[in-house]
Each structure stands twice: as C-alpha cells, then as structure tokens.
Amino acid sequence: MSEAFWQFPARHGTPDAAREGAWYTSEREIYAKLQLEPAQCVYTYEHETTKRDRPRSLKMAIAFPDLPYAHDALSPAIGSETLQTHHGKHHKAYVDKTNAAIEGTDLADASLESIIAKADETGNAGLFNNSAQSWNHAFYWHSMAPTSEGPSGDLLDAINAAFGSVDALVEKLQSAGAGHFASGWVWLAADSDGKLSVEETHDAGTLAIGGKNPLLTLDVWEHAYYLDHKNVRPDYLKAVSTGHINWDFAAENYKRGSIWSYPSA
Ligand SMILES: [Fe+2]
C-alpha cells in the first residue's frame, strides 16, 4: 500500500489560504503545525487525488446507526432485501452526503438536529434533505419492531382520548399514508400538552425540529415498500401498522416529552 499522507481540506474556512491543500507526511506533523483537531483532517493517499475515507481514529461527525433488528425481522411486511437496500443504501447515502456537506465547516461537530435546523434556517435544501432524511430513517427503524404488543398506560389513555381507540389510530395512520401525495412521512405526534395527532410531512420534511414531539413514523416513499408490495402502498401500511409498530418506542418518546435524539457517533 502506498504511504499515507495527510492533506488540509481545501474548503476549510481558514484565513491562511497557503495552508489549503498542503500536504504533510504524518498525522503528528499536521496537528503540531496547524493545531488542528482530528475531525478537521481528510485522509488520502499519495498516488490519488480523490478523497478517501477517514482513518478509524477520526470519528465521523454523524453516525450511521445499525438496524435495531435483523434484516428479515419484519418479513413479510418488509422483506430482507428491502431493509438491506433501504438501510444499507438509502439511509447510508443520506448520512454520507450529510457528512460530506458539513466536513470542514462550523457544523462539523454539531448534532444532527442542529444541522437540520441550520439548513432549514438558511434555506440550504441539499443539506436539509440529506440531514433530515438521516434523522427520519433512524427514527423510522425504531418505530418498528419484530412483534407488536399494543400500547398501554399513559400512551394508551392519550390514544383513546385523541382517536377513540387504538384501532381508530391505526386506521388513521393507514388512511393518511395511503392518501399522502407522492413521497413523505406519516407521524404520530404529541403537542406540548400531550395531545396526540397524526401528522404528514412531504419529501424529507421532518418533525425532528419544530413544535411537535414525534412518537413514531412510517416512511411512505416508494423505496420503503415497492419490492414487497409493488405500488400498493396501502398493503404495506396495513402490514406494518397492524403487526410491527414499536409501541414501547412511542411510549418512551411520549413519556420523555421532548424530541428523540439521533445517536451520536
Ligand atoms: Fe426511506
């Protein structure tokens, strides 16, 4: 293998332009001369000009969390091939693109929630889409479980108060998801008084920021169900909402009363 070199990231906002793109022969040298933190460095090889993965000693700013269950755990509602692609390709791509966008910027060490909020505030659509989709998918994996026991306690009381019954809530999630135009997300959410509602967001829209506390979500992008149910979105929604809702996760979010935090790297 070629000898490893270190390069100062060209787009880093340094006042000393002469440092940008400069090469150094050791990790120690770049830290000593530039007084940098490891996360500000990009790992590359002498014979290549393209950026390579960071070495293991440098943490990624945003984590790519594992699925909380096996790929076949939700089958046949959601099959193994769907989860391998949806998690391993789609979700990973959103995380990778978010990390690439924040690298060397003042958001490099920010939480994912802060990145989403900043992208929304500044109208950075590319960063918003990738960061919000990173958050939405991690939240979605936890919103489902291999088996579903049904809600209880305070969450059950809140569901009955808002919708009349658990069955009525499930039907509302299904109808909202089936009727949602094009891509997006359907959510069960609580307001600051603990009152529940079913919400919809379009495309990468998220409840990770804003006034509602999301309790669970269902992905209604076509990539979530096409391999298992072709274009019949209602079949996917029925299979998931009647057999795989993680009510324990929803109850934890309801009890906490504040928005779930994306896992750190
Ligand atoms: Fe998705």
UniProtKB/TrEMBL annotation:
GO molecular-function term, one example from the UniProt record: metal ion binding
Recorded coiled-coil stretches: none
Sorted UniProt keywords: Metal-binding, Oxidoreductase
EC number(s) reported in the record: 1.15.1.1
Occurrences of domain Manganese/iron superoxide dismutase N-terminal (ranges): 64-145
PROSITE patterns with a match to the protein in the record: SOD_MN (PS00088)
One Pfam family, short name: Sod_Fe_N
Domain Manganese/iron superoxide dismutase C-terminal, chain residue ranges per copy: 151-252
Name of protein: superoxide dismutase
Organism, as annotated: Croceicoccus pelagius
